[in-house]
Amino acid sequence: MLKETLCFVSMLFGHHTCSDEKALTVRCTSRNGVVVCQTHAGNERGKTHISGSVEKGAGAANIHAASTHLDIVATRKGKVIRSVATGFFPATLPETRQGIRGRSTFDVRMGELPPDAEIAVSVHRQPMRLCPYSAKR
After folding, report:
1. HSE-up (13 A, CA, CB side) for residue 88
2. Domain residue limits at 81
3. 41 contact partners, CB below 8 Å, separation of at least 6
4. How many domains does the chain have?
5. Total-model pTM
6. pLDDT, tens digit, 9 for 90 and up, residues 30-82
């Protein structure tokens, strides 16, 4: 657990270094005033770890996880092989203060994905309980 925490913290600061992890490509879709940034995905010891952060876009009003979540979808050859809906923490995206952008983070684990899997992280403005991906957790 300590190693995973250190890997996640290092990813947040842009210095991700997990020696035995195989990185996967992540495609991000930002929308509705939420920007997905600093994402990372990798396979390690039979599990896929997907993490990153979100922030408010310019001029966005208050954004809260009760009405907005992230859809994480893994596809292979055009077919969905795994999907999950997740929130972010803190649940309300922080304001930019003194020039420092406020960010919330997300962190998801799935079963190991094949190296040619394509991962998409997208913003979904809908309560998570109504999202079809939340039932597949």
Report:
1. 33
2. 20-136
3. 23, 24, 25, 26, 48, 49, 50, 51, 119
4. 1
5. 0.76
6. 888 888 988 999 888 888 999 999 988 777 677 777 888 999 999 999 999 99
Q: Is residue 14 part of a domain?
A: no
Task: Establish if 13 belongs to a structural domain.
Answer: no
Q: How far apart are CA 59 and CA 61, in angstroms?
A: 7
CA distances from 118 to 5, 23, 62, 67, 121 (A): 24, 12, 31, 26, 10
**Residue listed under structure tokens 């403005």:** 125
The mean predicted confidence, pLDDT, of the chain is: 81
Cβ atoms of 99 and 37 closer than 8 Å: no
Task: Report if residue 28 sits inside a domain.
Answer: yes
**CATH classification of the domain holding 36:** 2.60.40
Residue 3 included in any domain: no
